[in-house]
TrEMBL record:
Alphabetized GO MF terms: peptidyl-prolyl cis-trans isomerase activity; protein tyrosine phosphatase activator activity
UniProt protein name: Serine/threonine-protein phosphatase 2A activator
Family note: Belongs to the PTPA-type PPIase family.
EC number(s) on file: 5.2.1.8
Organism whose genome encodes this protein: Plasmodium falciparum (isolate NF54)
């Protein structure tokens, strides 16, 4: 898998922001966010540990339980593995004004986890040629955990996670009935890591 640093930024100044907001991809992202929002209106939030993989004998989205599609479940497991990376990379005992260098070890561990598990999760979807997209999709997931060099985390990193889900959706990895699970399970599990 390639180096995420070889991708280049296209939104770098006011002019490129204006160009982006007039693009079809911008409209697609806004539509995706709107659809995610609509999918959870009036839907009860359940504890994350209650969600499970749906099998052929389960009735999807019955009144008592939310079952996850295989694709959502595989990404859920990948995000949950972030906790294992956190546990294996404790903070370093140091005096520092800015961040803890242990975060850099966490980033390395998580990048490795993504490189190992994401191709497996994508290949199980049986979408033709999906492996061609793994590198670019992994870029957004890797950058959703924070900046390894600056040792920081903010809303731009949360946007990277949303774009990770968006990219998967663009290649039909998710279907509209998955949308509520993207919000109530995947995004929620991602945010809980930082709480």
């Amino acid at each position: 898998m390639g180096d995420v640093n070889s991708l280049s930024y296209k939104i770098i100044n006011d002019e490129s922001i204006i160009r982006f907001t007039k693009s079809s991809i911008y409209n697609d992202i806004i539509e995706f966010i709107t659809n995610l929002n609509k999918s959870v209106v009036g839907v009860e939030m359940k504890p994350l540990e209650d969600f499970k993989l749906c099998n052929e004998n389960d009735m999807i989205n019955n009144d008592n339980f939310l079952f996850l599609s295989k694709n959502v479940y595989n990404i859920f497991q990948l995000i949950k593995n972030m906790n294992k990376c956190i546990d294996s990379c404790p903070p370093i005992n140091q005096s520092s004004r800015f961040g803890n260098r242990g975060f850099q070890h966490f980033c390395d561990a998580y990048y490795k986890e993504v490189d190992e598990y994401l191709p497996h999760a994508l290949s199980e979807s049986n979408i033709p040629n999906i492996s061609e997209h793994t590198y670019q999709i992994s870029y957004y997931l890797k950058n959703s955990i924070g900046n390894k060099k600056r040792i920081d985390y903010g809303t731009g990193h949360e946007l990277n996670f949303l774009l990770f889900l968006f990219c998967l959706n663009k290649i039909n990895f998710f279907i509209p009935s998955d949308y509520k699970h993207l919000v109530l399970v995947l995004y929620r599990q991602y945010v809980f890591i930082y709480i």
